[in-house]
Amino acid sequence: MSIQLKNLKKNYNDFTAVNNINLEFQDKKLSVLIGPSGCGKTTILKMLNRLIERTSGDIIIDGKSIDNINTIDLRRSMGYVIQEIGLFPHMTVFDNIAVVPRLLKWDEAKIKNRVYELLDMVNLDPSINAKKYPAQLSGGQRQRVGVARGLAADPNILLMDEPFGAIDPINRETLQDGFLEIQEKIQKTIVFVTHDIREAIKLGDRIVILNQGKVEQEGSTLEVVKNPKNQFVRNILGEDSEFKTLEFLKVSDSLSEIPKTYDVDKFDLEKAKQEDSKIIILTKNDKFFGFVENRGLNNLGDNKNLKSIMKTYKLKNHLSLFDALNIMLRAGVSTLPVVDNDNKVVGIIDFSSIFKKINSGGE
Ligand SMILES: Nc1ncnc2c1ncn2[C@@H]1O[C@H](COP(=O)(O)OP(=O)(O)OP(=O)(O)O)[C@@H](O)[C@H]1O
Predict the structure, then answer these.
(1) pLDDT digit string (tens) for 178-223?
(2) Ligand 1 neighbourhood includes 40 CB (under 6 angstroms)
(3) Can you list the domains of the chain with their CATH numbers?
(4) pTM exceeding 0.80
(5) Counting beta carbons within 10 angstroms of the beta carbon of residue 27, is it exposed (0 to 12), middle (13 to 18) or buried (19 or more)?
(6) Does this complex have an ipTM over 0.90?
(7) Helix-strand-coil percent breakdown of the chain, rounded to 5?
(8) 100 in ligand 1 pocket by Cβ < 6 Å?
(9) Which of 30, 98, 267, 352 is the most exposed place for a label (fewest CB within 10 A)?
(10) 44 Cα: distance to centroid of ligand 1 (angstroms)
C-alpha cells in the first residue's frame, strides 16, 4: 500500500509544524523520516493515523483519501510502534499483543496462534515470555513485544516512532538486525521516524530529510547518501556517510562467487589443493561445517587432521557489509563463507568484492 502526502500542512495556532509537504511512501518499502528535533517527524506520522488532524492538504492511501476511510478501520490497517511506553503494564505479554485481535473479535484459538507466531518471529520464546508482564522483560525484549503488537492484526502499514530510541547501542543493533529480517519476510509499507542517521541508513530503503516542516531531500538511501543536495543534508548525513553505506549494503549483494564445497567425510586433499579459491568450504549433510584456507592445506601434518586447521567463522547473508568487515577483521581473514538461514553455503565474500561494491555505489 502506498501513501501519498499532498500539500500536507499542520498549523499549531500560528506556528506551522508541517509546511506543504508532497511525498510518497512507497508500497512495501521502509521510508525513514529524519531531521532535527522539532522538524515535524512525529506530527507527520500521527497525521497518517489521524491521532493528529491535518490543517490542510490530503493523505491518500492506495488511491483513497483518509477522509473517506472510517477512522477505526484506518487505525486497524496501520500498526503503530512507539518508544517504550507502548505496552500496558498490568497486562501480560500475551494480552498486550492480543489487544487488537480481541477488538476485532477473533476467536481465542486464532489469537493464540497469532500471538505465538509473532513471539517466535521476534525471537521471544512464547512458552517463557507469553505469561510475563512488561516489567519482567528487558528494554529490548519489551520493544520486541511492541513490534509484535504492532503487527498483530497483520496491518499493511506499520508506523514506527523511534521504536529503538531508548535501547542501549549494542541491543539496538541486535533489534535492528532482527527487524530487518522480519521486514524481509513480511514486506510491509513502513514509515519509520528516527534521529539516528546510522539507523536511518541501515534500515531505510528510502530517506526523507526534514527541516522546519519541509522536505529538504528525499530519495533512495544510496541516492541521498551519494548525492546530498545541500549543506543541511550533508550535516545530517555527517562526515563519514560513504562509510555508513556499509550498514545499508548487504552481504547477499556482494558475493564474489558460488564456491565448490567439500563434504567433510569424503574430503579429497589432493583435489582440494588444486582449487583456485582461497578457501575450501566443508559441509556435512549439505550444511556448512567449516572452512580451511587453501594455503594451509600444504602445512597439514601427517595425521591429515583437517579439524586442526579448520575455522568455523561464517557470515549470514542478510548481514550488512559493515558487520561483515567487522567479523572479518576480528577473525583475521580476508575471505569468508556466506550461509543462508538454513546454514547452506550460498557464496564467498572477500575484501575485494566488498570494496568493488562500495566503489560502484551499491549498484
Ligand atoms: N500540540 C502542539 N501544540 C503546539 N506546538 C506543537 C504541538 N505538538 C508539536 N508542536 C510543535 O511542532 C513542531 C514539530 O513537532 P514534532 O513532535 O512533529 O517534531 P519531531 O520532529 O518529531 O521532534 P522530536 O525529534 O524532538 O521528537 C515542534 O516545534 C513542536 O514544538
Answers:
(1) 888 888 888 899 999 998 898 998 899 999 999 999 999 999 988 8
(2) yes
(3) 3-238 (3.40.50.300), 252-360 (3.10.580.10)
(4) no
(5) middle
(6) yes
(7) 40, 25, 35
(8) no
(9) 352
(10) 10
